[in-house]
Write a structure and sequence with these properties.
487 residues, alpha/beta, TIM Barrel, Immunoglobulin-like, eight-stranded parallel barrel, six-stranded antiparallel β-sheet, 18 strands, 28% helix, globular
């Protein structure tokens, strides 16, 4: 089967925005039709809660696009934005209306146009497995019971629906048996058509793709194959990435998704660079599970398997490489606030195959444990809370990736794995980059062997000051540091 992924994704640097916590708009920029601020927002920066709103919106995010451009971002992944009675908006009420608290459809159009004007792509979070109690067709069942014309839109066991019964399992299929999240019956033709229409409608409005929430729970290849066909008919370069925490070969054969949220990479880079120093108290409760610490040879072998053996090369270059998300503790917290380790993790993310995704605030050292703590507000009004050194370092590594096609589009080959050090190379159309990661605390003397790779150029130059990388040369990689050489 032919595998074809959007070409632009290979060069993408994603930035993930959780809308309620990223940025509030400036009051004087409210356009006509924008819903005015309610009075019951939590203070910006208050400890996040499961039900409280802090008032982030799309015009606020639009005002920060220049910040993202300066960071080097050229693609944005928005967590759900459709009308919903939850701060995370995974409880969808209306698939065709942007939440009024975010500014409605007018504010989204303004945001999308402004992002596109800066050369930034925008993908939306698609929650197609389940809706909410406020979703019209489910509400119809609550009101009309088995006489509702929408009775086959959901999986109902008996009547009346106990959607608000405390301490009782719902008598209908719901995601994780959460009553507020009724699961669609996607075997019903009308449901399938509704969801496919929602997907293509927003592509017609100009979005650049979809991140799919729990797509494996719609256990139906034909559904997703048709989803892809219809999306690509509207936009042949639409990016489709699934939230799939483990092996995803079933969905990544070229006929369903382009990529997965690559938590497989996250586990590996944490296991190598953090090892036994990982804080897994919250992480192991998530889709990560228990993450093993990895030696340099084991890490190298796992990277080789992930990038060279498991998936088609086109899929590998389109994978969304994560260091965390709205569902996991933040990288700084998992690293026990070891900023040196966080810098190494970012550098690895920016130099391996796949599109990096920066979770909002990670670049300034925002901490956060398990949900909802990982969804803290971005401290725009407290720059003293920013780690500006980390921010500058992330900017440099993003700039390096954007400057070197080999880091964005190149193949992947391990050159050495020894005593806490892994060295790998990326090559693309005559361009080469070599990366050395030293996860140990000891300085490592690296001798460049003639046997490393016969295709290596005669000389590679270190990024920044430093020795050249050439056969016969002995180079030093300090403990807990990295080196990058490129031609």
């Amino acid at each position: 089967m032919e595998v074809n992924t959007p070409d632009w994704v290979k060069d993408a640097i994603f930035y993930q925005i959780f809308p309620d916590r990223f940025a509030r708009h400036a009051a004087l920029r409210i356009p006509p039709g924008y819903t005015m601020d309610p009075a019951n927002f939590q203070p910006w920066g208050a400890p996040p809660t499961t039900k409280g709103f802090q008032g982030g919106d799309l015009l606020g995010a639009q005002e920060k696009l220049d910040y993202l451009a300066d960071l080097g971002v050229n693609a944005i992944y928005l967590n759900p934005i459709f009308a919903s009675a939850s701060n995370h908006r995974y409880h969808t009420h209306d698939y065709f209306q942007v939440d009024p608290l975010l500014g409605g459809n007018e504010a989204f159009k303004s945001f999308l146009d402004a992002a596109h004007a800066r050369g930034m792509r925008v993908i939306l979070d698609g929650v197609f497995n389940h809706a909410s109690r406020g979703f019209f067709q489910f509400n119809h069942l609550l009101e009309c019971g088995p006489d509702s014309p929408y009775v086959d839109w959901f999986h109902v066991y008996n009547w009346p629906l106990n959607a608000y019964a405390e301490r009782a399992l719902p008598n209908y299929d719901a995601w994780w048996n959460i009553p507020s999240l009724p699961k669609f019956n996607t075997q019903t033709t009308a449901v399938r058509e509704f969801l496919w229409h929602a997907a293509t409608y927003w592509l017609e409005q100009g979005i650049d793709g979809w991140r799919l929430d729990v797509p494996n729970e719609i256990d139906d290849d034909a559904f997703w194959q048709e989803f892809r066909r219809r999306c690509r008919a509207v936009n042949p370069e639409a990016y489709i990435v699934g939230e799939l925490w483990g092996d995803a070969q079933r969905w990544l054969q070229g006929d369903q998704f382009d990529a997965q949220m690559n938590y497989n990479f996250t586990r590996l880079v944490y296991g190598f660079i953090l090892g036994k120093n990982m804080d897994q108290s919250e992480a192991q409760k998530t889709g990560y599970g228990r993450m093993p610490d990895l030696s340099a040879p084991r890490f190298a072998a796992k990277l080789d398997e992930l990038f060279n053996k498991t998936y088609h090369p086109e899929i590998v270059l389109a994978q969304m490489n994560m260091l965390g998300s709205h569902d996991t503790p933040r990288v700084l917290t998992v690293a026990r606030e070891n900023k040196t380790a966080v810098r190494l993790i970012f550098l690895c993310q920016m130099t391996v195959p796949g599109a990096p995704n920066v979770y909002y605030g990670d670049e300034i050292g925002l901490a956060g444990g398990g949900d909802p703590d990982c969804r803290r507000a971005f401290p725009w009004h407290a720059p003293d809370q920013w780690d500006t050194d980390l921010l500058a370092d992330v900017k440099r590594t993003i700039a390096l990736r954007r400057a070197k096609a080999a880091l964005r589009r190149g193949d992947f080959q391990v050159l050495l794995a020894d005593r806490g050090v892994v060295v790998y190379q990326r090559q693309y159309q005559g361009e080469t980059a070599v990366i050395a990661l030293n996860a140990s605390t000891r300085r490592y003397r690296l001798t460049v062997s003639e046997e490393f790779a016969p295709t290596l150029p005669e000389v590679l130059v270190a990024s920044g000051a430093g020795e050249v990388f050439k056969a016969g040369q002995t180079l030093v990689v300090d403990g807990r540091s990295a080196r990058v050489w490129a031609d």
